[in-house]
Amino acid sequence: MRLAEDLDRVLGGAVTIDDLELETLEAGHAIRVRATLRAATRVETIEAIGTDVLSVYGPFLQLAAESRLRDAFIRVVDAG
Fold first, then answer.
1. According to the 3-state scheme, what is the secondary structure of the chain?
2. What is the pLDDT of residue 65?
3. Torsions phi, psi of 53, nearest 5?
């Protein structure tokens, strides 16, 4: 799945994908993309809902980038 490859690229090596789901909602009028991410001992779920895959693609990858940034911040703070 192309989304999984792009998600993996955005996350880098420090955050891994535990689960990735693509679900149709509301009788086919909306979709939900959800991923469970793991960074060391922290587990986080990100989710985006839209009318089609293209409408959730950008926001979903942005959430993934935010998760990676959050993880980097936590590692810096914990190291200090």
1. CHHHHHHHHHHCCCCEEEEEEEEEEHHHCEEEEEEEEEECCEEEEEEEEECCHHHHHHHHHHHHHHHHHHHHHHHHHHHC
2. 94
3. -60, -40
The pLDDT score that the predictor gives to residue 18 is 93
Q: CA separation (Å) from 39 to 8, 55, 71, 75?
A: 13, 27, 7, 10
Residues of the chain with pLDDT under 50: none
Structure tokens at 80: 């200090």
* Whole-number pLDDT of residue 53: 87
Whether the model clears a pTM of 0.70, i.e. scores above it, the answer is: yes
- Closest to 65 (Cα-Cα) out of 31, 18, 14, 2: 14
